[in-house]
Fold this protein.
Amino acid sequence: MNKEFFRQESSRLNKKSFRRKAAAALCVLLLALCASGCGGTELENKTFPLAVIIAQQEGQHQVCYLAQQLSEVANERADGGNMTAANASGSTYYETHQSFEKNNRCQLDMTHTKAVIFQKGFLESRAFTVFLDTVRSENTYARNTLVYLSDCKMEEMAELNNTLEVPLGSYLEQMTENEREVNEQAFVTLGTLLNEQANASRTLLIPVLEVEHGLPAIQSYEVLQGFEAKGRVSAEAARIYYLLAGQMQRMDLFLDKEEQVKLCRIKCSRKFRMEDGTVTEQLLLKAEAARVTGKSSRERIERVLADQIVEICQEAKLQNGVDLTDSSRCLAMEAPEVYRAYGKQANEYRDRLVYEVQVQVRLV
């Protein structure tokens, strides 16, 4: 999940394959419209955004809908492009949505939206929870719509949507489909946010979109813990979070510039010990390791990975006030004594938490 990954994925994106998928989607839409009878909205009177950028500026919602003309998508001989970017504003997201439809004399259909991109500051605003309430009540978006954060201006995202071989929303979707390290359940979606809004029980990492060399890039993540924005962590910290959450299928571990190993069959378990109010989380990580370069011993691999985990988790706790191991979710079942002491005191629990990490690898 680094710069080289995104360059590789860019070469895999096939314009012809996307058009075939879009043509199939168009057929489904046409059938749905036919089934709805004469009273349904005509296809040419609908707009199908594949990505939506949402911001809150001076008390006003600013929304940019990034779409592609479906009549051109269905034509495999088209030269590509045909992207559209349309802006709307209003005091609430619902008002903005309605204003767009009125001013453009069309109906917005968000059921095929691939990604929602929040701009900086939106997660900390009241508008964030109001937006989720609207999504829940109106049922406008699919629950598997991917979620991102970005510091880029709307104009920059719109330009990116226009210059990529496929729309930005489809690009981001294909990026996640081609991800080989992280399991699908690791990606934050609108459904994930709606569940977390109701329960406030998980740690979520929302990828922050940047533009590098004309391509989307992710170098940091915004942490949501207790449904509160806790600031950014690095891509390396995100990998440790996914690793400990059991969401990594495989992982490249760089011991130094000349030595690299590949980990697979990764499993993580944990136990808790409380003494004088201090809670020790004992993490046991097991994996198979294959040398890619160098001749590192099993002991060195285990020591380097264990040290990295402790260092990154401690740094996140000190700088962001978050527990990257998401251990509080396990207390009720695995450590009832700790849960009775700290179950309703998340901040005090985190302050009293220390990490012990043991790594066991089998060289193959």
User: Anything to note?
Assistant: Residues 330 and 339 are 9 Å apart (CA to CA).
